[in-house]
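[job 4471] stage=fold_predict status=RUNNING
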Amino acid sequence: MHLSGGLGAYDFSWLFRSVFMWAVVKFSAFFFSFLVLVLS
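[job 4471] inference complete, writing structure tokens
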């Protein structure tokens, strides 16, 4: 899976994807708690 030439790009893509997924999880949790607070 790791190519000697494109290792940096692959690592950057993996880092960006993991950070994006973490942000999506955090935002969805915050939005869900806000929605529960408003509806209750």
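[job 4471] summary: The mean pLDDT is 85.
[job 4471] exit 0
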